[in-house]
Every structure is written in structure tokens, then in C-alpha cells.
């Protein structure tokens, strides 16, 4: 008997018992879909975890002032005697911590930002810049109040200069016109004159590029050791250092792809670009890197990096820019096994600096590990449920086939009488159950991405760096589920093969 | 053609055992029309099933054309049933979920006859038994006589040399039974050996030879002069 004949007979028998067959096929489809989805999901999850564990951001330890974070679990108003004095962390803390804490390898600032190409008085930029200034003016004002009470004084003493200079300077463009709406309506020439009075002119104005192929790009405001911590190397030129920041150099380092986009035909190094009120000189272009931002998923290849403005105020004589108090100091270790020691030492250091409980030292890795452990347990439960669904579907198939063997006992006897061997009967029944399993598996494979999508959206956050769709694993998962399902057809088929033909025919 | 030597068969019914056959010696020659008679429980059907190697004997030897079948594998026995034997049953035993034509195609399918050849052969067989207008019909849409004719067409699919019929007219009105008997007699004239179980004395007398069983032994063996 050919396989085509066997298939034809299977289809006829399945059609003959259509409703129960459809039910069994549906159950198999659900079981297969869940198992395939789980298979693909766990693979994706592992890959994501591996990626995250290898990511520089997870060798990072952050130090924040308690009370500065906005957490929805916190009361809107509270009195806490231990946090009576406002603290702002700054680059000086970074430098002292680096000197005082042996366990950390890098210390830096890294704040995400977006850079608008062109001068603020350029027609298209006025609204955008005004919005930026409005937002910064707001935060600057609040934070400035805090800073002057705390670290600001210390800095003032050390540098012989107070931050209020910066504050005053900042509020001028926005404040003079009374906020963002005013800035947008301001006469471009008047605006330019004000900015130039404040910042000085660009010197050789012709050398400044203020039109680029893109209107804006994302990046980070960082300090020198950021590049080391993230393993970023310059392919051309050089990355900037803390000395550059101290010297007040307005420099920018471009990601590999960003440099190509901005300067497709010429070399980027040495070019001066105007980004809002600031003019930057490109000093370096990074070598291609696989690193992506954990928060936004943006490839570092497409980002720009400028000196962290908050640091600049502290070191610079002349540079005046946005006074954004640093909320987060970042430290990194090269070897994550020293993480606990580093956290301990940093906690000791900041507790002795500002008093216990005023700062919070967090290792992102700890949070990740905790989250992943919790998720792993959930996954184990979901995996169990998926396997249970497949198991139940397979048992249904098993029961259905066994019932068919019993119902068709006489037919088996007749088949044997007209020349079917035991082996042929076995094959016929295994073919029939495999047809149902296969149909179920095929439908299940189509449903699997839906189940997968549900699992993914409800269980893990998407990070751009890891492509989470993996058809191979769907197929492998579905194939395994199919194998299980087919296996459950073996016993009924063997029973069919064992039917005593003589007795079967006589059972009238 | 067939030689049975000391065939015995006992059924184990759990608490008790039933001896169906106790030492049957029987030789069937090519071209015979053998009728098997006897009261219920005398072992007629068991003998027929053993002859058709649907069932195996507990003791004794079965020689088909001098070959001992007791040593053959299930696949080999199945091939013999498929190619050399044809079964006709009292209750027709057609596959109700398949059409008349498909029913006749089954033995051809097991024999590995392909596609159009299989279909043509099955059509020809149904035409031979007078069912050219019933090919696409399902068994439950046909009369008993028609069903039995489909069963005969199916039994003849692979040109068997032996037809084993277990009360083929038992479920039919006498006129239809007569039609079936005439078909069998026609086949016998063409050289097909026929073994027919019946408990109708008139039918028993139609064969060329009649054996009577009682309590699992051959009680009498009478040949009718040709």
C-alpha cells in the first residue's frame, strides 16, 4: 500500500468523524502553539539576558541622592529629618569617589539628550530651542535652588566662582522673553544678538556648519571615563577626556554611523558644528560598536557624545551652558565579580561624605538579576502550563484513537481478511493520528507567533539590540511538540495491529 | 491444494476453555465446491477461518500446495490471503464509509495495484456481478443482495484460487440467496475452489462435496458424483 493510499484512507476516516477530529486537532494546535511559543520565547529570553549581562550598563553602579528620584510609591509630601539638607551630586564627588574607592574602575556622568542642528535663531529651530530652554529653565531653576544650599557652596569656595552666574546667564534668553512662547516669536536678529552677547561670537563664522543632513540627533552628555567603561574607541581622531572638560573645550565625538550620515563626503574631524546655542568641534569618530542603549535601544553608532554640561560649569572659566544638576553618578567595574565589594565601598564612601541614608547606591545588575529570577519562575510555570496543554491534547488524541480502534475492530478484521498485515494496520492508524497531529501542529505553528507576542508583551520589555523573533525555534518547538503528539498515537496503533482478525469478524 | 493434518483449536474464555476443533484431517482439491455443515458451535466458522489463515491452529499442520504455512510470517500470510484467498461473509462486512467501488478497490490497494489500473479492475468486477449502476453507492444505500454481490466482487479482486464463504446467503431472502449461489457456482465452473459454510441442507447439497462437523470433528464426508 502506498503512502498516498494510506493518506487517502486517513483523510476519509477523519472526515467520517469530523467533529471529534476537529476538536482533537484544535487541542493539538493550542498545545503545539504554546510549546512552540515557549520554546522560542525562552530562547529569546536567554539571548536577551545574555545580551543584558554583557552590556556595559550592567557593570554600572549608580549613586543618587535619596529623595531626588521620582517614584510613584513615595508620598507627595513627607518630612524626613535625615534628609533635611538638599544635596546635589557633582563631578567633584565623582573625582573624590574615584580616588577614595579602590574597587571601581571607572566613574562618569552619562545623561541622555537630544541635539538640534543649527543656531537657535534659525527659522526652523526657534520653536524647538524655545521648548528646550523652557524645559531646562524650569528644571534649572528648581535644582539651582537646591544646589546653592549644598554642593554649590563648596564649589564656590573651591573655584572662587558661584553657580549663580550660570543661572543668571541661562535665564536670560528664556527669562527675558517670558518663556517658550516669547522665544518663538522673538525676532531672529534680536535673538542672535542676545546669544552672541552672552556667549561671544563663533569667531570665524564661515567655518561653522549649521546645516546637516539631519535636523536633530540623540546622544549623551558624558565625562571622559564613560568611553573606557563602555569600551568605545575612536576610529578617527580621539575621544575627549576629563582634561578637555576641565579646559572647557566644546568638543563632540560622533558614533560611526552618525558621522557617515552627517558627513557623507568629507572627513568629520575638525569640523565645527552648531547645535543649538553651542558650537562643537568634532574631535573623534568612534569605531563601530554593537552597544545599544538599554533604555531606548538606540545604537551607539548613531549617537553623538558631548562633554557633560554639569561638569563644565564646575571646571570651566568661560563655558556657560545649561545648569542641569547631575542626579546620578555612575561608576563601573570591569569584572562583575567585584560588584558587591564595589557597592559596599561606594556606600561607605557616600555615607561618610553625606551621612547615612542620604544617598542610594544601586547596582543595575542586582536589579536585573532579581527581575530575571522572578521572570524565570514565571516562565517555569508558563512552560509547565504549555506542556500540560500539549499533554492534555495528546491524551485526547490518544483516547480518540483508542476509541476508533475499538469502534473499528470489525473493520480491522475485514482488512486483515482481504490482505492487510498487522504492520499495515499499525501504519494505517499511526498515519491517521499523525495526520491529525500534523494538521494541529501546522495550525499551531501559525498560532505560535500570536501566543509568543502575548508572552513577550506581558513578560519582557523589548530591547532593540536583540531580535526576538526566531522562526527556527518556532519550527523546532513545533517539531518537538509534534513528535510528542505522534508518540501518543503509537499505543493505539499497536493495539489496532494486535486485533485478532478472526474474533473481530465474528463479533456480530 | 490444501491439506490439514490434525488441526486442533481451543479458545480460552478466561474462566473456561472451549474446544472448537479437535484433530481435523482434511484435503481439499483444486476445483472443488466444498460445503461445510453442522450445528451451531460445531466449529464450522473456526475451520473456515483457519483455512483462510485468519486464525491459527493450536496443533496440526496446514499445507498449501505442499508449503507449510505454520512457519510463515504475518506479512507473508497476509500476502497469501490477499492474492490467493477471497472471503465472503454472512453479514457482507463491507466498509460502510466507503463506496461500492472503493470497497472493491481495497484488496487491490493492499496488493499494490496502482491508480487507474486499480479503478478499472474494480469497475470490471462490479460490472461482472451486475452492479454497474451502483458503483458510487455506499453499502447502507444498497439491498442485502447487492451488498453481497459487492462483497463477492471484492473477494475476486486479485483473482483468488480459493473463495471462503461463511453462510453467504444467511442474511438474504431466498431468491437473492439463489442469485449469490449461482454466482459462486459460476466461479467454480471457471476453476475457482470454493469452501462454503452453511446450515441449509438444500445449499449443502449443491456442492461437489459436503463435510459435516460435530463437536469439532468431521462426522461425515460425502462426495457427489459429478
What is the compact description of this entry?
The complex is a heterodimer of chains A (508) and B (226). Chain A has 508 residues and is of the alpha+beta class.
Which features characterize this protein?
heterodimer; A: 508 residues; alpha+beta; 8-stranded mixed beta sheet; 4-stranded antiparallel beta sheet; 57% helix; 12% strand; B: 226 residues; alpha/beta; 6-stranded mixed beta sheet
Please give a structural write-up:
The complex is a heterodimer of chains A (508) and B (226). In chain A, helix 2 (18-54) packs across helix 16 (422-459), helix 2 (18-54) packs across helix 17 (471-487) and helix 16 packs antiparallel against helix 18 (490-498). With 508 residues, chain A is an alpha+beta fold. Chain A has helices at residues 3-16, 18-54, 91-100, 126-149, 151-159, 164-177, 180-185, 188-199, 225-229, 242-246, 256-262, 309-315, 339-354, 364-407, 409-417, 422-459, 471-487, 490-498, 501-506; strands at 60-65, 106-108, 110-116, 208-209, 216-222, 234-237, 251-254, 272-275, 278-286, 304-307, 328-332, 359-363. Chain A is elongated, with a radius of gyration of 34 Å. In chain A, strands 3, 4, 5, 6, 7, 8, 9 and 10 form an eight-stranded mixed sheet that branches. The longest helix of chain A has 44 residues, at 364-407. Chain A has two domains: 3-54 and 369-506, no CATH class; 106-332, no CATH class. In chain A, strand 8 and strand 9 (278-286) form a beta hairpin. Chain B has 226 residues and is α/β, with parallel strands linked by helices. Chain B has a single domain, classed as 3-Layer(aba) Sandwich (Rossmann fold). Chain B has seven helices and ten strands. Chain B has a six-stranded mixed sheet, with helices on both faces. In chain B, strands 2-1-4-5 form a four-stranded antiparallel sheet, covered by helices on one side. In chain B, a hairpin with a 2-residue loop joins strand 4 and strand 5 (67-68). Chain B is globular, with a radius of gyration of 17 Å. Chain B starts with a strand and ends with a strand. The mean pLDDT of chain B is 92. The A-B interface holds A 1-2, 5, 12-13, 16, 410-411, 413-424, 500-502, 505-506, 508 and B 45-46, 49, 52, 54-55, 74-75, 77-79, 81-83, 87, 89, 91, 93-95, 97-98, 106-107, 109-112, 114, 154-155, 157-158.
